[in-house]
Each structure stands twice: as structure tokens, then as C-alpha cells.
Amino acid sequence: MLEHVELFFKSIFIDNMVFAVFLGMCSYLAVSKKVSTAVGLGAAVIFVLAVTVPLNWLLDQYLLQDGALAWLGPEYADYNLSFLSFILFIATIATMVQLVEIVVEKFSPSLYNSLGIFLPLIAVNCAILGGSLFMQAREIPTLGLAFNYGVSSGIGWFLAILAIAAIREKIRYSNVPAPLRGLGITFIITGLMGIGFQSFGGMLTGDNEPPEETQPTTAEKIEEKEIKKELEEEKTISYNEVKNK
Known about the structure:
Oligomer: single chain
Mean pLDDT: 83
Helix content: 55-70%
Number of domains: 2
Largest sheet: none
Order of helices and strands: HHHHHHHHH
Shape: flat
Distance between the termini: 68 Å
Number of helices: 9
Radius of gyration: 27 Å
Strand content: under 5%
């Protein structure tokens, strides 16, 4: 359970797709002028990541890894299809994005029109593909953790675009210096937000106690106290002998 909680918060705040690895910046900058639009795109990204990362984990475990085809028989144990990772990952992502596009167009035509070309472009959003590739590179061990990683990475991206959209709506009425208006002030705010998110880097490090296996046992503590006591007695005896002389 602890590893799920740690992965969840780490993916949102510390390894944020936007502020830590700068993925998905094109959509982040282009669709963050209004909060309503940012919410719609962010929700779509969460859904796509939550579905594609576990699906690609299954593909990686049972099809792409070296020896993953052993379940078909011993004669397939030496096969390595990892060179197909990009093709299959992108195919999975494109399928899910097409499903999202159909649903959004059906139930929210206004949001579909406001997102415009950026909704189908989720298929080539590097944050979406990055989620699956990071899952593969970090060798996430279980399907549950893969799902957790997909959802939390999507939430991290959602928070980033929602925050910048809210700030951009506010600074629209602010007296921003002319050379910084537009993308200039947006990049500055993004940098400051990135520093803020990175400040969470130590929240999961725990205390400074040594690991359990290196902590002294009760017997060792008693022995250490006895040794210290004997040393103090020896010092007292030596001091008294010198004093008597």
C-alpha cells in the first residue's frame, strides 16, 4: 500500500510531466488560455493515460520483453520483440484518443470545438507516450502500480495546465510589461511553478534514522552502555591515583 501512495504523490508533484521532464508543453501552452478548456483537455489526458499505461504494461510483459512469449511455449522463449515498442504503444494511444474524441464530440460539442485540433493531437502528445515509456524504463512490477502511475501522471499534467490557465486568466487584467506579455510571462510563471513543485522532492524521504537492519539491537545497546560505564570507572580510578600521588 505504501508503494502505491509513494508512487501516486511522486508522479504528481516530484516527477510531474510538465515541470520535471517538460513533456506535453505544446498543449500546455496552447490550450491554457481558459480554465474551462484546460479542464476538458486535462480530463481527457487523465483518461488516456489511465487506460494506455496499463494496456501497454500488459503488452510489454506478455509480448515485447525478452522472453515474454514463453507463455506460448518454450520454442518462443528466445524471442525479443522490444523493437516494436514504439509502434504498439502509439497504436494503443491512437485508439484511445479516437475513442475520447468520439465521446467528447457526442456529449460536449462546445468543448470539442474549443479544443479544436489539440484533441486529436493527444495521440502525438509526448506526455502520453512518455507515460508508457517511463513505465517500461522504470520496470514497474505490477498492473496495479502501472494503473496508479498512469492516473497520477495524468493528474499531475492536469494540475499543471489547470494552474497555468487560472493564472493566465488573472494576469489578463494585470499590468504586465509589454515585452513579457503572452508567452514571455507564461514561461516565467511556468518556471516558478516548476520550482514550487520540485520543493516537494523531500517529502517522501522519511526521517534520518538509519535503516532497520543497521539499527543496533537491545543487547548491543546494553553492551555499549556497560562499556561506557567501565571506561568512565577506569577514568575515575586513574584520576584518583594521579591525585593521590
